[in-house]
Write a structure and sequence with these properties.
alpha/beta, UDP N-Acetylglucosamine Acyltransferase, domain 1
């Protein structure tokens, strides 16, 4: 049975499941699809071409499905897809995609977006991710599964966050974040507690620790971390170039020592992809579609303003 407040503004063209709750002050647009068991607390806005699965909870002040803040967006009818069992806490914002970015922003299942977090256009969020308060996610970012991001983190466009990674509060994510590791702008260790929560065995965790020590040895840690901060393309200094070469050499040494388990193999392949195929340390940057296009109209010369009348 639907429970819709008489003080809500629900467009008759939207598609609503039978057992939903929409609180006072909410606004639901004509192209919205709301799945069963969804709950909209007071003053939630859901707009745009937005399809939402089952049992999602939206706390007061959320704005879901607004158009992208990309200057290249010209009003095209792009989409937002949300899976099941997600929680959007107060003041969360999520935008639809852009045509050049594939036209869709995608959120999977069982994620939690805490107060004030922002998900920009063309972002893909996997499953079981947690974004803490005020996490700011730029366009085209890709979250693999089980990523945990602490508060006040900024994530640059086209970054990939590897599965089971943990991002320390206030970190700047400007390059891809390797899976299974703790990251504060560079890897600082294995996310052992998180891996245990997700069912990793002690043997698997110890294997990742041993691999981490080989890839990022304590001697010269600052330099090796600098290499990861400057993955491949962001090599503005001789020190950064030496660091990236050093990391590549250690990867080759690890591979020559014999086969790794599935998680070690994935970590190494992730690093190689960002180092060798990425741009500025971001693999998805190499796949962007707007290279060579003229600048948006925003940057077009403007006619001179008339002189004020005296």
């Amino acid at each position: 049975m639907r429970n819709i407040s008489p003080n809500a503004n629900v467009d008759p063209a939207c598609e609503l499941a039978d057992d939903i709750e929409i609180g006072p002050g909410c606004s639901v647009g004509p192209k919205v699809v709301l799945g069963p068991g969804c709950r909209l607390m007071p003053n939630v806005v859901i707009m745009g071409n937005t399809a939402i699965g089952a049992r999602n909870v939206f706390c007061p002040g959320c704005v879901i499905g607004a158009p992208p803040q990309d200057l290249k967006h010209a009003g095209e009818d792009t989409r937002l897809l949300i899976g099941d069992d997600n929680i959007f806490r107060e003041m969360v914002t999520v935008h639809t995609g852009t045509t050049l970015g594939g036209g869709v922003t995608t959120i999977g299942h069982r994620n939690q977006f805490q107060v004030g977090s922002h998900i920009a256009h063309d972002v893909t969020v996997g499953n079981h991710c947690v974004l803490s308060n005020q996490v700011q996610v730029a366009g085209h970012v890709y979250f693999e599964d089980c990523v945990n991001v602490s508060g006040l983190v900024g994530i640059q466009q086209f970054v990939t966050l590897g599965r089971n990674s943990f991002i320390v509060g206030f970190a700047r994510c400007t390059t891809d974040v390797p899976p299974f590791l703790i990251y504060d702008g560079a890897p600082t260790g294995v996310n052992a507690k998180g891996l245990v929560r997700w069912g990793f065995t002690e043997k698997q965790t110890e294997a990742l620790r041993a691999l981490y020590r080989q890839l990022f040895p304590r001697r010269g840690r600052d330099e090796s971390n600098g290499g990861l901060r400057n993955l491949a393309g962001m090599l503005f200094s001789r020190r950064a170039r030496r660091s990236a070469r050093s990391l590549s050499r250690r990867i080759r040494e690890v591979e020559s020592n014999g086969p790794l388990d599935e998680h070690g193999t994935y970590l190494v392949e992730f690093l190689k992809r960002s180092l060798h195929d990425g741009v500025f340390g971001r693999y998805r940057e190499s796949q962007r579609r707007d290279q060579g296009l003229p600048p948006p109209k925003f940057y077009a010369p403007q006619p001179a303003e008339p002189e004020p009348v005296s």
